[in-house]
Amino acid sequence: MRQGGYCLGMVRIAAATASEHASAAARHVADAGGNAVDATVAASIVGMVSEPGVVSLGGGGFLTIWPPGGRPATIDGYAAMPGIGQDPSRFGGGVFDAWMAYGGGMTTTVGHGSVAVPGALAACETAVERYGAVPWETVIAPAIELADEGFPMSMAAYRYLSHCHDTIFGWHGSSFRALHTEEGTLIEPGGTVRIPDLADSLRTIASEGASVFYRGSLAERIVDDMDAGGGLLTMEDLASYHVETRLPLQVRTGGWEVATNPPPAVGGTTLAALLLLMSGEPRGSWTQTAFSRLVAAQLAVFGYRRDRLDHSSDFVRDADALLETIGRVGPEWALRSPSTIHTSVADSDGLACAATFSAGYGSGVMAPGTGIWLNNSLGEIELNPEGLHSTRPGRRLMSNMAPTVARTADGAVVAIGSPGADRITTAILQSFLNFSNLEMSLSEAVEQPRLHVEFSEEGARVAFEPGVELGPIDLPIRPFDHPDMFFGGVAAAALHPDGTLEAGVDPRRSGHALVTG
To answer: What's the rounded mean pLDDT across residues 132-154?
Structure first.
């Protein structure tokens, strides 16, 4: 066994992944002697390969890991602001706005200037080195095989790309060719996607390590294309990028100790605050009282985020102030006042890992000769409230992602997370409460109807699915007529005290549950 690995022999796993291909990768690595972290990373990287438009190797993300008998950790591989050593005249350029019908119609900023420093590969390699039980090459192998053979266009990827294959992924030559037929039409669901050069890039990453993406031949190709397209990303940005390992934000709710993504990400802070504000609700079932409290909790937390956190000059201080105030004076005080994939894996040894990765809406940029799409994290307006290129180079960007692991004293452990922009935290919250408070199975917990408090310039309103029984409420409402992927796509895996493994995936998005053994 490799030094630092958490695998004493063959372990069983429960995995909730983005697709059947990702699930197969998790099984392959587990059969090779891998543990929950190896399986999580293998499934995540396969997702980055086989879900074009949804996520990519050129994105960023987080992994929250909790080994049995050890301390939890969050590995921060999120995107950072580029521009170290860059000509100041480049700032503010290299971008254009792209409109798409996704989400009811929206505009995002794309182009070379929207690309932030990607951290996904560095984070994945760090997780495997510190917590894994098999070599990096073994973890990468399923993605190489998939890239070699080609893969079917998934329904999730097709649904997203149908809105933006021309505006976001149609302007950059190598990007366009990878997703379209010879006649120039978007590849249909089930049609084979073959991305030139991607398998070779993955082989190089497997043999040389992620460093080739940050300081080697892949880095050179990416930066050459950035220079030609007016982007900010430099060799110095890539070479100086480093993964941060952070102590997760931890809160106690009921008998569960919950570890989630800490500052400077905003997702974990809002999730922790929401858990504290629910104060034992729901009890027995989701009553009108429980739903009313859920609305009030979201109003308080998201209101605080808009007023304080999104424009904070000291995010850690203001995040701590929110949680400290709730803890000191109780929840009643506050109640008065796409593109992402997630993988969750727990194994029979009690190791659990939750990982969320995103490339934003996609920049449309695929550096020639790499087969790797790059993110548009700088162009995500909601995560850059101070404006385009306003953050100092090297600083981590804001993120809604909140991969979470929770434990009880009797040995239960659950890994949980979701894609879904600002709905990530509310999707995780409601699914976790269904599992922890109402003792539902994970499948039942993630299927239950959800609500989310939306904010706009016109104020707050409550969006909800059929089955949510709202009482009298002094807010505008937006009822949905069916369960919708707007409300997230939770993936969760658990080990119960009796040794039973369980996985649950959200029917709102394509996903796959796996339990081995």
So the answer is: 96
Cα-based angle 62, 127, 156 (whole degrees, multiple of 5): 50
203 burial (CB, 10 Å; 0-12 / 13-18 / 19+) is middle
Q: Are strands 477-479 and 501-505 parallel, antiparallel or unpaired?
A: unpaired
Percent of the chain with pLDDT over 90: 73
Quick check: helix, strand or coil at residue 108?
Answer: strand
Sequence-distant (6+) residues with CB within 8 A of 426 are 274, 298, 450, 451, 452, 453, 487, 488
pLDDT of amino acid 265: 85
Distance CA 296, CA 332 (A): 10
Nearest to 422 by CA among 277, 310, 279: 310
pLDDT at residue 337 is higher than 70:
no
Token couple for 373: 């799409």
How many CB atoms neighbour CB 292 within 10 A? 16
Angle (CA) 333-477-267 rounded to 5° is 50
Q: Are 405 and 350 in contact (CB under 8 A)?
A: no
> Which amino acid does the sequence have at 198?
L
**How would DSSP label each residue in 290-359?**
HHHHHHHHHHHHHHHHHHTGGG-SSHHHHHHHHHHHHHHH-HHHHHH---EEEEEEEETTS-EEEEEEE-
Q: Which residue has the higher pLDDT, 75 or 6?
A: 75
> Whose structure tokens read 């850059």?
384
Q: Tens of pLDDT along 427-469?
A: 999 999 999 999 999 999 999 999 999 988 788 999 999 999 9
- Report residue 209's pLDDT band, with 50, 70 and 90 as the boundaries: very high
Q: What is the mean pLDDT of residues 31-60?
A: 95
CA angle 191, 186, 151 (to 5 degrees): 30
Q: Provide the 3-class DSSP secondary structure of residue 212.
A: helix
- Encoded tokens for 341: 């994939």
Checking if the pLDDT of 138 tops 90, the result is yes
Q: Which helix (H) or strand (E) holds 192?
A: strand 192-193
Which residue do the tokens 């543990």 mark? 35
What per-residue confidence (pLDDT) applies to 327? 67
Distance CA 137, CA 31 (A): 15
Q: Residue 332 above 70 pLDDT?
A: no
Instruction: Give the pLDDT confidence score for residue 310 in this predicted structure.
Output: 72
What is the rounded CA–CA span in Å between residue 338 and residue 376? 11
Backbone angles phi, psi at 21, to 5 degrees: -65, -40
Where do we find the tokens 């649904």?
159
Q: Is the pLDDT of residue 31 over 80?
A: yes
> What is the rounded distance in angstroms from the CA atom of residue 449 to the CA atom of residue 453?
14
What torsion do the CA atoms of 319, 325, 328, 333 make, to the nearest 10 degrees? Answer: -140
Positions of E strands within 5-141: 13-17, 60-66, 73-77, 96-100, 106-110
